[in-house]
Amino acid sequence: MRLKAPFETSFGVTQDRRILLVEAIVDGASGWGEVTTVESPSYNSETTDTAWHIISDFIAPKLLGAEIRSATEVRTLLSSIRGHHMAKAGVENAVWDAEAQLKGRPLAKLLGGTLNEIACGVSLGIRETPDALVKKVTGELQSGYRRIKLKIKPGKDLDFVSAVRKEFPEILLSVDANSAYELKDTAHLRRLDDFHLLMIEQPLQWDEIHAHAKLQSQIKTAICLDECINNAGHALAAIESGACRIINIKLGRVGGHSSAREVHDLCQQHSFPVWCGGMLESGVGRAHNIAMSTLPNFRLPGDVSASQRYWSEDIIEPEVQVTSAGTIQVPQTPGLGFSVKRDLVKSLTVRSNQWMARVMAGA
Ligand code: OSB
Ligand code: MG
Q1: Distance between CA atoms of residues 36 and 18, nearest Å
Q2: How confident is the model at residue 363 (pLDDT cuts 50, 70, 90)?
Q3: Is the pLDDT of residue 360 over 90?
Q4: What pLDDT score was predicted for residue 358?
Q5: Distance 15 CA to ligand 1 centre (A)
Q6: What distance in angstroms lies between residue 57's CA and the mean position of ligand 2's atoms?
Q7: Is the minimum distance from the CB of 303 to ligand 1 under 6 angstroms?
Q8: pLDDT tier at 324 (50, 70, 90 boundaries)?
């Protein structure tokens, strides 16, 4: 799927997404999940193709024909597979959707969600000039978005943030470095303290909690960890070591709804706010993000925004829409609450595979 506009982060530019979707047939119900890898191993170690391999050769054989009472058991069935959280999440989340449909309940409610409306922010890619960025921010604020996040990297940071802050002194503003800096850049990063940002997301190495603890003790701006937090144990390590004050939860990165809920609950117990991160998802992943964002400790606007910001036509019906108050209304119908446009998915499909459980004699 081609994004309406290229999206630049510190690790590269994306325009054409190669998205892996999973459909799980469970007791006759069809559930959908999305694998949220990016195309190269530049955000974390997974790619669309590693997920294809892991699902085909390891996950599908373990799940086919398995008897489970709830989607919460999928994680246990897959526990012998190390890592590959995004591959696992694509499958586990499809089973969650199917379970919610079988039970006739909205997925958000099945997960324990309490909000009927979620608050939305936007993540803006790196731009050529500060002026171009200010213009983009102006448009997003006019659409109602409640928090603006700016992607930054060395050489594309202070001037850009300063220009936006000058134009909009009061908005909730944050930055995301996607691991573009090092601890030796501490003095430089401290200059961001002048812009009273809500947070700086993942300034240092993707797998370095300890270095973030050192940085957090030397800057005022709250650090939010993204890439570093792959399970509740990582979240606890980050909280106890003072590596951050906020955590962003991404369903794929942590391995699916079960793990996401654990990270959420742990952060809630420690009074750490969480928010829902995005991975330039299609409607399927977006719908899962909406359901997850209804849990009570999602206290900051997430990177979950309207389908129309990304795609000229999304693969779900209805598309995700954002109110002029910068919110998304959570569907109240069973499952994800959006239906997949099968014909459109089919026309975009370049590769597919399916597996069937062997039906036992007499079953
Ligand atoms: O770090 O949040 C990130 C996109 C791809 C990879 C990593 C990130 C992002 C985004 C986009 O910020 C959020 C979105 O609009 O989906
Ligand atoms: Mg991020």
Answers
A1: 10
A2: very low
A3: no
A4: 73
A5: 13
A6: 30
A7: yes
A8: very high
Report the nearest atom of ligand 1 relative to the CA of 278: 16
The predicted pLDDT at position 146 comes to 98
Give the CATH number of domain 2-105; options: 2.50.20.10, 3.30.390.10, 2.130.10.10, 3.40.50.300: 3.30.390.10
Closest ligand to C-alpha of residue 17 is: 1
Residue 178 beta carbon below 6 angstroms from any ligand 1 atom: yes
Superfamily designation of domain 111-339: Enolase-like C-terminal domain (3.20.20.120)
pTM for this one? 0.97
Atom of ligand 1 nearest to the CA of 281: 16
Q: Which ligand is nearest to the CA of 121?
A: 1
**Using CA of residue 120, residue 105, residue 78, residue 19, what is the dihedral sign?**
negative
Closest ligand 1 atom, CA of 178? Answer: 1
Quick one: 66 exposed, middle or buried, by C-beta within 10 A (0-12, 13-18, 19+)? exposed
Q: Is 43 in the pocket of ligand 1 (CB under 6 A)?
A: yes
**Ligand 1 neighbour 229 (Cβ under 6 A):** no
**How close is the Cα of 116 to the center of ligand 2, in Å?**
25
- Residue given tokens 């591959």 in the structure block: 87
| Per-residue pLDDT tens over the stretch 266-305 | 999 999 999 999 999 999 999 999 999 999 999 999 999 9
State the Rg of the chain over Cα: 20
Q: Is 99 in the pocket of ligand 1 (CB under 6 A)?
A: no
Q: Is the pLDDT of residue 133 over 70?
A: yes
Distance 7 CA to ligand 1 centre (A): 9
Any idea where the domains of the chain sit in the sequence? 2-105, 111-339
Q: Which residues are catalytic?
A: 151, 250
Kindly tell me if the per-residue pLDDT of 314 is higher than 50: yes
